[in-house]
Structures are given as structure tokens and as C-alpha cells.
Amino acid sequence: MSAGPSLDPLADESVTPLVRKTAAWAWRLLIILAAVVALGWLILRLEILFVPVALATIVAALLMPVVDFLDRRGAPRSGAVALVLLSGFAVFGGLLAFVITQFIEGVPALAGQVSTSIEGVGAWLTDGPLKVSEQQINQFRDSALEALRDNQERLTSGAVSTAATVTEIVTGALLMLFTLIFLLYGGRNIFTFVTGVVPTGVRARVRNAGRAGFHTLIGYVRATFLVAAVDATGIGLGLAIMGVPLALPLASLVFMGAFVPLVGAVVTGFLAVIVALIAKGWIYALITLGLIIAVQQLEGHVLQPLVMGRAVSIHPLAIVLAIAGGAVLAGIVGAMLAVPVLAFLNSAVRVLLADDPVAEEEAQEADDAPVIEAEPDDVEQLE
């Protein structure tokens, strides 16, 4: 393999084969890297378009099986889409209103607990082993207020940018809704039309790869939704039984955090521990921590093996790197989208590069069935 056209054949012969092969790999990898960077730049420039379409695709993966089920039972496709969307909006809107009501009712009690905790901390600082004087505490408070006044202009500009962000969110939400409607109604036809630009020789392979990737995405979103619901229910019930304020809003945060694997559950669980510590004391905080660890162990060792197939599972290192890269590029949204995109690409690329793409696609569909992998000792006993 040559690194490129040479003006002097003798010069090529004077270079060792290892150097020539390394150069050939190097310039090809540089071209691939340039293409990836250009694609990333384009996605960032069109973030207001890319993010709603990506979110709509993920939601479509969750709702598509329900729409297909109604379609197979004889319901008109448009009616099935409308029914599923309206039902989803009703459930989501009702839960959101209930959570907001609970949050409004629980904040005053939590604020009172925070005030009491602050007074307790102040008394400990002055009367405890540190012997901090009230003058020093007042100086720290005045310094904080002065820093707040000095950064007032920056906060004001941040409010203006927040207003612009709200406009972008509304625009993105409408775009996501329209995209979701068309994906649920005729997503397969859209995919067939888009892949029509692919050369005829590889068109079937590309379509098989796309179907395999979306099938894996359906399994991933369905499993993540179930795991998130179990996590939120278990932690929410535990917090409610202990009488921790804002139990339902915290459970909702746990549900949303579960869509960011590994990291999201840790962060939202830490918030629940902090609220329990402020409101009920360190004993309840330790109980809350134990509850969260128990739920996470249930999720990792029982739920995920049951609801996620081998084709959906991804190595934890790849998940961490994907989340970190997504967070750096696009913040919280990037962290949420990183793993679904990785799951899609994992299956699609495997089919795309397989010697027999149809057989690979069928194997992945078989692997997506719920499985519990046996331990080596169990296998030996069965033999």
C-alpha cells in the first residue's frame, strides 16, 4: 500500500516498508478525521435542527411499537398516531402538573429547614471548636453580597440570553413535534426515500444497517424507560415513607437522570441525599443513600439483564467516553443523546461491515430478546 504518488521511485525504495505503511495509514486517517470534524462542525452549527430531530427519533423509537400494534389491528395509521400522541401528552401533562404542584407545596417547608440548618451551622461555627466570630461571618456575608452586586451586569446579560434560549426551546419543541408526527406516520417511507441517493450496489446493505440500528434504538429506549420508571418509583416511595420533602419532584429528577446512564442516576441520587440531610438529618440521609444504592444494584444486576439484550449492551468505558464527549460538545442534551446515538451506530456499523448483512441483522434481532447470561459455574453444572 503506497502513501501516494511518488515523483522518484528510488526514493520510495529507500524508505522501509513500515514507514511507507505508516504514512499510508496516516494520511488516510487524517482525511477521515477531517471529515468527522467537518460533520461535527456542521451539526453544531445546525444544533437547533439536529437536536429536535434526534429527540424526535428517540421518542419515535419509544412510541413506534404502539402505533404499529394499533395499525396491525386495523386502525388507520393517522388515527393511531393521533391517539398515541394525545394519550402521551395527557399523561405527561398530568404528571408534570402534579409534580409542579407538589414542588410548590414542598418548597416552603424545605426553605424553613434550610433556614434552621443555616442557623445551626452558624451556631456551630461560633460555639464549636472553630470559634469563628460573628464579625467574621458578617464579613463573609457582606463579601458575598458585594460580589453579587459587582456581577449584576453579567447576571442581567445572562437573563437576556435565557430569554433567547426560551425562544429556541419553543422553536425546537415545535420542530420536534412535527418531526415526531411524520416519523410515526411514515418514517419507513422517509428512510427509503433518503437512502435512494445511495449507490444501487450498497443500497440494500445501508437499509439493512439503518433498520438494525433503529431496532436497537427501540430496545434501548424501551429498556431505559422501564429502568427509569422502576428507579423513580422505588426511590420516590422510600422518600415519601421517610417523610422527606419534595419526594415526588426528586423521584421525577431520578427518572430523567436515568436517561443519562451511569452519571445521571448518581447526580440525582446525590440531590436526594442532600435534601434528606437538610430536612431530616444525617440518619435519614444515610438511609436515603442506602436506598439509592439498593435500587441501583437492583437495576444493574436484575433489570438491565432482563430487559436489555446482548445487542443493546455497550461497554461501560464506551458509555463514559460517549457521555463525556456529548457533554463537552452539547452540554446536557449532548450527554442524553450520546448513548442512544452510540447504540444506534453500534448495531448499524456491525451490519454495514458484515459479510452477510441480512444474517447479521437477524442475529441482532435475536440477541435483543430478553436474556439472563449464566455464570461460568452454572454452565459447568449444566454440562
From TrEMBL:
Keywords: Cell membrane, Membrane, Transmembrane, Transmembrane helix, Transport. The chain crosses the membrane at residues 25-44, 50-70, 82-104, 173-198, 219-244, 250-274, 281-298, 318-345. GO terms for cellular component: plasma membrane. GO terms for biological process: transmembrane transport. It is a multi-pass membrane protein. Residues 360-383 are annotated as: Disordered. It is found in: Cell membrane. Its main location: membrane. InterPro entries: AI-2E-like. It comes from the Bacteria. Belongs to the autoinducer-2 exporter (AI-2E) (TC 2.A.86) family. This is AI-2E family transporter.
